[in-house]
Amino acid sequence: MRTINSKIIGELKQNDQFEDWWESELIEIPFFDNKRMKITFMDFIPERDTEFIKEADKALKTFLKKSESDRLLISNLAYENCMEFLNAVEFDEEDQPLWDIKDKNQIWKFIYPQDIYVTRSHDKFEIIYLNLACECEWEQEHGLQLLFKEGEKLTRISEQDGHITESDSYEKPIIENNEFNQLNLNENENKTKSEWWKFWK
User: Fold this and answer.
1) Is 85 helix (H, G, I), strand (E, B) or coil?
2) From what superkingdom does this record's organism come (predicted)?
């Protein structure tokens, strides 16, 4: 079995079925309260992309510095995704605990991180993204994905649809992104838009 080596997460083994997938051992992820998760390099042929590991390591180093407090900064966005979905479907009594949420930070109790995928965008920029794939209580069929450009800037929260992002191709910051054009700051955090932009930039 072929392997590659990351300076940040160690050895990754080639997937048995997909030659361009490389899988790590379980890694503690501070962003998710040190939950141990597998990290997969996707769409990566070492002989064709000699810079991938270096760029992936840079993105992972950045992302692994993020903690619970960083996650809570985006609670509003995860909550909005949930409410948009619930408002678009027929009421189900099983969703009542989601409707009953008072503190938007509680949304993470209904989100279950599964895997992290590292891949390049398929546009002309070929930027490294981290895709945090999760299951969630409100979208049990398609789940939830959180996409971080170069491990730093959140560019999208959506169902797992197989796409990275279109809007980021135009280099729009999150507060201008149409997918988040009604960004509501968490009242409990008391953060201004300028403080958010400083964080994500």
Assistant:
1) helix
2) Bacteria
- What is the rounded distance in angstroms from the CA atom of residue 118 to the CA atom of residue 108? 22
Helix (H) / strand (E) containing 91: none
Neighbours of 96 (CB within 10 A): 9
**51-96 pLDDT, tens digit each:** 999 999 999 999 999 999 999 999 999 999 999 999 999 999 999 9
Measure CA of the first residue to CA of the last residue in the chain; give whole Å: 40
**27-39 residue pLDDT tens:** 999 999 999 999 9
What b/e readout covers 136-175, taking b as 16+ CB neighbours within 10 angstroms?
bbbbeeebbbbbbbbbbbbbbbbebeeebbeebeeeeebe
Long-range Cβ contacts of 26-34 (<8 Å, 24+ apart): 29/64, 29/113, 29/116, 30/64, 30/65, 30/66, 30/67, 30/68, 31/63, 31/64, 31/66, 31/67, 31/68, 31/70, 31/71, 31/132, 32/71, 32/113, 33/68
Task: Please give the Cα distance from 125 to 107 (Å, whole number).
Answer: 33
